Amino acid sequence: MTTDAELLAVAAEEARIGAEEGGIPIGAALFTRDGRLLGRGHNRRVQDGDASMHAETNAFRAAGRQRSYRDTVMVTTLSPCWYCSGLVKQFGIGRVIVGDDQSFLGGQHWLAEHGVEVTVVNDPALIATMGAFIHDHPDLWNEDIGEE
Question: Could you give phi then psi for residue 25, rounded to 5 degrees?
Answer without folding.
Answer: -80, 70
